Amino acid sequence: MGVTPIIAADAVTKRFGTNQVLTRVSLPVSEREVVCVVGPSGSGKTTLLRCIAMLERPSEGQILMQGQVIAAAEGSAAITRAAHAVRPQIGMVFQHFNLWPHMTVLGNLIEAPVRVKGMSRSAAVDIAHALLEKVGLTDKRDAYPARLSGGQQQRVAIARALAMSPKVMLFDEATSALDPELRREVLVVMRQLADEGMTMIIVTHEMGFARHVSSRVVFMDHGETVEESAPAEFFGSPKTERARQFLKQFED
Amino acid sequence: MLQYQFRWDTIGSNLDFLLSGLNMTLFISAVTLVLAMLGGLVIAVLDMSRFRVLRLIGISVGEIIRNTPILVQLLWVYYVLPIVFNIGIDAVTALIIGLAVYQSAFISEVYRSGIQAVPVGHREAAQVLGLTTLQTFRRIVFPQAIRMTLPPLAANFVQLIKYSSLGSVISVTEITRRGMELSASVFRPLEIFTFIAVVYFFICWPLAMGIRMWERRLANR
Description:
The structure holds 2 protein chains of 2 kinds. Chain A is 37% helix and 25% strand. Chain A has 9 helices and 10 strands. In chain A, helix 3 (105-115) packs across helix 4 (121-134), helix 3 runs parallel beside helix 5 (150-162) and helix 5 packs parallel to helix 6. Chain A is globular, with a radius of gyration of 18 Å. Chain B is mostly helical. Chain B has helices at 9-13, 15-47, 52-66, 70-85, 91-116, 120-129, 133-163, 175-186, 189-220.
């Protein structure tokens, strides 16, 4: 490759008790790449993403950001420090949005910039406004999350992650909890981000999105990466039987 | 019963005496509530501790207190503690200690369920954005937990007011004790204890109703 990946999972194995969820999964991602991780449920996609987000610690292997170890099976002071430093650079969007219900949309957006980055309130508000405009929700600034539709909530959640100016965005089945008619508005925002050159790792069941927007598709099954290729290749002529079986479900 | 001559004027002529007991009842309830809220916090923190030993202590204390009668605990504090620790405890202090410890065990459960009712995802969202554990608790978990905690806390207050009547057994001069004393000298238990029951009712009932309305308002938000 030559260039150091901006973020990478390196031979990550994850066990919960005796249940092995990931087996030596490696996923280096270069800057501006949009990687879609697909596969049947229970294949370990979400766990992989949660390891990269530092919500789970690998049982073996490590997570690297620009060549620097930020998570490993054996913790150390240096890793903790590195993790702390890069944390704001990794944004994550969850399946169930996880907006804080006791804060307004604006409150959700400025919380981390103010508390974590020590930004002034007015500067954070300016950024929040720009981001709300980007996701098309300026009029919802003072609304509480419960008053928004699922699609609107997820767009706010994306804006909240972007408010920290991350270098990498992780999406964990960001549209799976949404009614079909609400998915589009979220996918549009995600596509726009991809077009702007954001580095993204997207766990998804949206095959159309993976085909048209991603620069690479990773197919996982039973905790392993089975196949990894360009979208045209993956959807046009999958190399493995398992991938063919998986893709069959999406044909009508 | 039909021949019974009601003498409600007994209440009127001894009102000051009875109301001094009411003052004591309210004082004990309020002091105990504050102590129990703090005690409940200690037990809740132990319950949710990362360390097994602390967890075990918290859970054991909670279970023991919740599964023995409050009256026995009060008698124990009043009669046994002074012997064990070789100290003098007056009745009011014993009542406050006993009630506070008892209620702590219940309030700790209130805290715990309030905190655990906040979805893990809200905490993870904060963690991913870089908020520290303390910031996450203070800004994300606590404000949500408190909404779910306030109504049951207030319900505990009603409970405390009622349980303070047990102080009469260890001669704390709260309203029930005053009633017993008065009844012993004027032989009018019917009027006296009816009056006292009504007093408790008109303190506790509006509180309980207020709480119910409050809960409904929170639920609608």
